[in-house]
Amino acid sequence: MEIKKVDLRGLEPGGPGWDGARDAVTASMVAYGCVVVQHDGLDRDIRQALFVRAMPELFAFPVETKRRNVYNDVQYGGYIGQLPALAGYESMSIKNVPDAGFISDFARLFWPQGNPSFCETSAGFARKAIKLEQTVTRMVLEGLGVRSKRALDSHHDQLRYTLRMAHYGTSPGDDAAKVSMPEHRDYVMTSMVVQNQVEGLEVQLNDGSWYAVPPEPDTCAILVGSLLQVVTNGRVQACLHRVKTPSNRDRFSALVGCMPIQGSTVRAMGELVDEDHPLMYHPCDPYEYVRFQFSEEGRKSKDALKAFCGVAKHEHVEA
Ligand SMILES: O=C(O)CCC(=O)C(=O)O
Ligand SMILES: [Fe+2]
Question: What average pLDDT does this structure show over 32-47?
Fold first, then answer.
């Protein structure tokens, strides 16, 4: 079993090939909570600049410096590293990309005089990734039956994007590939994973097997997070995934995830709730959900989203 790539190269909304691609993206998201797309959004120059120049330089800073990357809006918002459960893994993130102010604040944590080339690279990468994410999310929502332009626009207007750069170090003396990040679902709306040359991302299929997403240069994976599960009224399910890295090659990956702005409410889109699809989740505060997911109760729960805001079977709710 494999997840078939969907070719988005050269597509324009409503143009030739758009409807077919939209249906293929939607089918993949419904089946796997994930789609792998082939695209022309992230060219070789920008990937080289990020993965070969910027990220190795960034991760070479001492841990004390990397720890200056702090965000408190969500747990694990800034630097992650030196965790026994995630041996060899480190990551840092920049909020509100591609906003130039947030990117240069991040750069100054490492380069007090600033680093225009780092800023340009991360802003350029983020801009292109966001465009791709917006295309794919639009396709899924349309593919599920959302026709209201207002609903689609307001969905995107409330989102803010974070670029998380991750490094998975090698484990000397150990020849086997190992699970470097255990299986989980992302709490976000969607996350886009861009790999560079070294494999690692694995997605669980319905039969319980793991599908390794090939690290092909002109592809990336877009994963459904728990919040999109709420928005689509459960029509797409958050993707269960993990990272399994080879022992002998350093791996870098870049993730672009999105969250609604603080103070917003996430709710199922009206067009996705009807008699055949009764409301599955109560409207919720996305940041409260993140706190719950990481709480003891959330961690213990088999289905944190359902425990947090699921509509119980006997419950009567007005749509
Ligand atoms: O590095 C990757 O390929 C994915 C990492 C991931 O799943 C995460 O950080 O949530
Ligand atoms: Fe993840």
Answer: 95
Report the percentage of the chain scoring pLDDT > 90: 91
* Cβ(85)–Cβ(71) below 8 Å: no
Rg of the chain over Cα atoms, rounded to whole angstroms, equals 19
How far is it, in rounded angstroms, from Cα 222 to Cα 240? 12
User: Which residues does 312 contact at the CB level (< 8 Å), separation at least 6?
Assistant: none
Q: Is pLDDT of 237 > 90?
A: yes
Structure tokens given for 286: 């996305």
Q: Shortest CA distance to 230 belongs to which of 274, 185, 271, 282?
A: 282
**Ligand 1 pocket member 181 (CB < 6 A):** yes
Q: What's the whole-number average pLDDT of the chain?
A: 95
Residue closest by Cα to atom 5 of ligand 1: 243
Phi, psi (rounded to 5 degrees) for 311: -85, 125
In the predicted structure, residue 284 carries a pLDDT above the cut 60: yes
Residue type, 262: Q
Cα distance from N-terminal residue to C-terminal residue, the chain: 38
| Pick from 208, 220, 10: nearest CA to 129 | 220
- Return the SS3 of 241: strand
**149 Cβ partners below 8 Å, 6+ apart?**
none
Distance in angstroms (rounded) separating the CA atoms of residues 186 and 195: 17
Q: Is the peptide bond before 98 cis (omega within 30 degrees of 0)?
A: yes
Q: In this structure, which ligand is nearest to the CA of 202?
A: 1
Per the CB < 8 A criterion, the answer to whether 190 and 236 are in contact is no
Q: What is the pLDDT of residue 218?
A: 94
Distance CA 140, CA 245 (A): 30
> Which residue, by CA, sits nearest to atom 10 of ligand 1?
186
Residue type, 279: L
The reported pLDDT for the residue numbered 240 is: 98
Q: Which of 59, 89, 201, 293 to mutate to test the pocket of ligand 1 (most atoms within 8 A of CB)?
A: 201
Could you give the CA distance from residue 191 to residue 196 in angstroms, rounded to a whole number? 16
